[in-house]
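Page 47, continued from p. 46.
Same chain as before, 401 aa.
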Amino acid sequence: MLVGLCGKTNVGKTTFFNALTLANAKVAPHPFTTINANEGVGYVKIKCVCKEYGVKCNPKTGFCLNNYRFIPVKILDVAGLVRDAHKGRGLGNKFLDDLRKADVNILVVDASGRTDEEGKPCKKGTYDPIEDVNLVMNEFTFWIRDLLIKNWRKILGKLLKDPTKFEEILLQELSGLGLKRASLKSSLDETGLRNKKPRDWTSQDLMNFARKLLEHGKPFIVAANKIDVENSSVNVEKIMDKGYTVIPTSAEAELALRKASEKGIISYVPGEEKFKLIKQEVPTEIKKALELIDKRVLRKWGSTGVQQCLNKAVFETAHYIAIFPVENEKTLTDHQGNVLPDVYLVPKGTTVKQFAGLIHTDLEKTFLFALLVNENNKRVGADYALKHRDIVKIVSAKGRK
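Result:
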């Protein structure tokens, strides 16, 4: 899956990206440092099943650390947004075109309120970061609305030929957004437009429909960044009061901890509330920086929030689940003897037969049944909807030959 990092310019998006991926994307305290989207790999974190079964993992991708499994996801850090981006202002068209590719988006805002609408530094207390949220949500909604308007005549033309296929025609014309049918259905129902003839839709109807498509098809979670800055907690609460899903974060602190851990200075598991100093001789400036992170971020907020933000985006906002496939239900291995080698992230509601197809198309074509190892090898059929952290063995006709 693909997670997008978005927001106005100069709010710490690229630092957030680097903290998740340990990449070295360019960071600078001025607008539009990011022009071309940065791509990398981050990791969602779940409790691994290895401890429950007394085995040691041999991951093919990702890694297992302190009984936590870190599962890779693609991260896309897109160019910063400005008002009227949907009209092409700034890097708007590029921003929105990149953004549409993501399954879920993390909207990074400057919770300190010290960067104005254009991403330029401003005096403390003079800018309300809730406007950052409104800016991104409105610009993406306008962009979807304009896409609908652009294609509306074509949609109506196709409806004249077959008025029973409105949903199929909409999905086809909006295929570039990667929308699922369920998102489209929910949007039609919640706007009350299902029973209104498309030729009678008003511009306001299109706007309302675009807003719902964004809500259901391209969901957002807000990362209230820079919580290490004084008075940011007030703005975090203000954003939460608006009903958004918000995670307080300090990307700068997370990046510092990740780099210190990589250099062997500290022992740190991403997302944890503390770290352990393991190197005896540490430069004074590094030691002081770590002490400030401990005091201003970890003790006050419980974590840097970066790992929690990614996890919440994937598992709660996008509604994905993690599944462990195995070939040997007794040893939890693949045919090469690797223990719990893979973890797949799939949308909630994925059936076991659909999952078989993700592993290999032949497995879906020759599917017979599956065994749920975590439920005493319970036998389930094709329509069984998988649950988070299920351990599954697929049995196929091909495998029985």
